[in-house]
Specification:
8 helices; globular; alpha/beta; single chain
């Protein structure tokens, strides 16, 4: 199987940041969450708040949206052009996406792309509260081994060196910059 990070790897840009902006435009009531997000962002930058806590506070904006499922599907449909062509040309049936972005968001893209295997951060779509750990760095390997203990990774692709733990699990690993893929 080939394993891929999502944001800036298969998807051009950061899908979560794009979705947050989309929410502000499509559901302006979410702007009420900006002061909270700004304060928490400052605390995070100053290393006074953990990343997961910051993200949960940022995702608090979801409580202002009564139709999250349809908004996610609308966003996904309007952003399928962000999926990189090189991925579509090499896509296989046993591909897996492992991402730190919210599962409900990544899952929507994966369903449209017929990617059956996906792991991401489990975030409540209505409250923004995490269930479990942020699926980042070493946690990606932990989740993969817990769910698919014998999985063998043929090739791994990511834009981020924070994914080194997964890269070490693969027979071949590639770092992605735009559309360019170089050996890790």
């Amino acid at each position: 199987m080939n394993v891929y990070d999502w944001d800036n790897t298969i998807y051009r840009g950061d899908s979560t940041a794009g979705f947050i902006r989309y929410c502000f435009v499509k559901r302006p009531k979410c702007l009420l969450s900006l002061p909270r997000t700004a304060v928490c962002g400052l605390l995070y930058v100053l290393h006074l708040m953990p990343k997961k806590t910051f993200k949960q506070n940022m995702y608090h904006m979801f409580t202002y949206i009564s139709d999250m499922e349809s908004l996610v599907e609308e966003f996904t449909g309007s952003h399928m052009d962000h999926v990189k062509q090189w991925y579509l040309q090499q896509q296989r049936q046993d591909d897996m996406v492992i991402s730190a972005s919210p599962e409900f968001l990544i899952g929507s893209f994966c369903r449209r792309l017929n990617i059956r295997y996906m792991m991401a951060s489990v975030v409540d779509i209505n409250t923004g509260i995490y269930t479990g750990e942020n699926c980042h760095g070493r946690e990606k390997v932990n989740r993969l081994r817990e769910t698919y203990p014998g999985a063998m990774i043929d090739e791994f692709y990511s834009d981020s060196r924070s994914d080194a733990p997964l890269a070490l699990e693969a027979k071949k690993a590639f770092i992605v910059k735009g559309d360019e893929r170089k050996p890790w």
